[in-house]
Amino acid sequence: MVEARITVNGKSTPISPAAPHTTVLDFLRERGFTGSKEGCAEGECGACSIMVARPGVEQPTDWVAVNACLVPVAALDGQEIVTAEGLGTLDATGAPTELHPVQREMAVRGGSQCGYCTPGFICSMASEYYRPGRCPSAAAVVAETAADSAAAVADSAAAEPHSHDGEHGPNGFDLHALSGNLCRCTGYRPIRDAAFALGAPDTDDPFARRREQAAPAPVATEYTRDGRTFRRPASLADAVGLLRERPDAVLVAGSTDWGVEVNIRARRAEYAIAIDRLPELRELRVESEHIDIGAAVPLTEIERRLDGRVPLLAELFPQFASRLIRNNATLGGNLGTGSPIGDSPPALLALGASVVLASVDGEREVDLADYFTGYRQSVRRPDELIRSVRIPLPLAPVTAFHKIAKRRFDDISSVAVAFALELEDGTVRAARIGLGGVAATPIRARDTEAALVGQPWSTDTVERAAGVLQAEGTPMSDHRASAEYRAAMLGQSLRKLYAQTTEAVLS
């Protein structure tokens, strides 16, 4: 077996002697790359952000920002990463000689104070800087000599006809790229100014040129240290074969859940199987009767490849954690954990989705409404893995996803409700409603669906059905919300949907 190695800032580095559960963050810091910091160890602060070269959606390679605190370093065997230290121009000895445009803008616009969070912001911002189509021409470059940042942004808007708002700059920069990065010092305005001041990468920018070359292919890995093993099989057949031999193995995809278990609860896996790069689990196909989404396709990639094809998912994705998390998180992982407060299950339940389970015995399809059997339990056998999520077509024309949480973005939901309705001549012809956070598992609101179907879509019907919806599930009280609040929000969510559909007709 070839020695496990990772390319860090252009230099190939052996992973040994790191333990299989060692995070990329700890691996980097132990080797002197101390720009990445540990703030929360849960993927919620972004201080550890790094860039990874991955197969692109619109080009050979995309630079993708991820939380280094969550990813086991063995999962990046054969891969290529860049830290904040590697972004600037370096001399032959590796010493920095010139700042990267992102670093320069952050410095001159006051985007860094204590500096703890700055390297993470830099990597997340650089990932967005290199996003294809963000800034199509150099005309959007903001004059670096402008004395006032507001005037600089105005100059940029005049130079490039980008539509922009509070969350999108005139240079095409999407501030959601920084939604997983926290800062306690600057108040964010200088960071936003730095982001909105970035122009297009220069033609000789090495990271821009790198996008035109293929990203590193996945490497079959068997890495063992101190009695613990990390395996990356080469194919789905190999993976399910390993699962049959080791049904106790931990399956690792985006590691956004398992990484927290490793860091916060000190969980250690004797045997881990990485499935995030299996070609069979990375497919996304739109067919005549259904859409198949591979269980290991990252959420960001699903969002870009579907490009609004499934409006309910398009509404869900911006509310699902942060961009840093979505760059690694997968639908398979979100369903595999069996969490009752995962954001995707309610939406997938409303869409009537099913899961395709694979083992050495073959594949079987299970309706998602029948998949969950108890708290973090499902019908999936220990020797099975989720191959794909299947969404039937055609889609319901009226959909909505309502997430009730203490923060608008990057928060765990207290209640999540997804609707998919078919209305015809003012009557509800079909209804599917998925709920999260109100029972031991994600559930369908069957009684409410029955109360709606065949009834006029009217205030009276909605009020009666809202009362039914408030009684669905078995909500509990915890530090996020009381049971009474959760029940009230269920009813209010249906009223909100009715108001939204009425406003759409009136407009």
TrEMBL record:
Gene Ontology MF: a single term: 2 iron, 2 sulfur cluster binding
UniProt entry tagged with the keyword Cell division: no
PROSITE patterns, sorted: 2FE2S_FER_1, 2FE2S_FER_2, FAD_PCMH
Entry EC number(s): 1.17.1.5
Domain of life: Bacteria
Domain 2Fe-2S ferredoxin-type: from-to ranges: 2-87
Residues of the FAD-binding PCMH-type domain: 223-396
Record-linked SUPFAM superfamilies: 2Fe-2S ferredoxin-like, CO dehydrogenase flavoprotein C-terminal domain-like, CO dehydrogenase ISP C-domain like, FAD-binding/transporter-associated domain-like
UniProt key word Iron: yes
Protein name per UniProt: Nicotinate dehydrogenase FAD-subunit
Source organism: Nocardia otitidiscaviarum
Taxon lineage: Bacteria, Bacillati, Actinomycetota, Actinomycetes, Mycobacteriales
Gene (UniProt): ndhF
